[in-house]
Amino acid sequence: MAPVTPYKVKPGSSRVSHASLTGRAWLVCAAMAFNLTRTAGVLASTFHAKATTGTIRAQLINIPGRLARSARKLTLHLPTDWPWQSEWEQLRAGAAPPPTAA
């Protein structure tokens, strides 16, 4: 991978090369995705805290569920025998607390 070079801006100019911004934007997005995946693993369980990002994606992010909408409310239906249901529920509880009744 090529080293990241600083922006080349001429004195008195407010323009920056579009190509350098595009490359950096992809790098920033990739780093954010990696960090969010690792954080999800830490929130889910001790096993997933040490797991690779591929394992976290396969077991927690690509979930075998379906969304149902009823009366402006979304409901996530998970399989009854899904092996990582408790870890996923722990991840969800850690990411956002359950909504309170109004």
How are the SSEs ordered, and which strands pair?
Layout: H1 18-44, H2 46-50, H3 53-61, E1 66-70, E2 73-77, H4 85-95
Antiparallel strand pairs: 1-2
Helix pairs in contact: 1-3, 1-4
What does this protein look like?
- It is a single chain.
- This protein is mainly α.
- It has one domain (19-95).
- The chain has four helices and two strands; from the N terminus they run αααββα.
- It has a two-stranded antiparallel ribbon.
- A hairpin with a 2-residue loop joins strand 1 and strand 2 (73-77).
- Helix 1 (18-44) packs across helix 4 (85-95).
- The radius of gyration is 20 Å and the shape is extended.
- The termini are far apart.
- The mean pLDDT is 81.
Number of domains: 1
Strand proportion, as a percent range, falls in 5-15%
Write the element-wise H/E pattern from the N-terminal end onward: HHHEEH
Number of helices: 4
Major sheet strand order? 1-2
Mean pLDDT: 81
**Structural class, from secondary structure content?**
mainly alpha
Instruction: Supply Rg.
Output: 20 Å
User: Could you name the ranges where pLDDT drops below 50 across 5 or more consecutive residues?
Assistant: none
Shape: extended
Count of strand segments: 2
Largest sheet report: 2 strands, antiparallel
What percentage of residues falls in helices of 4 or more residues? 40-55%
Q: State the end-to-end CA separation.
A: 52 Å
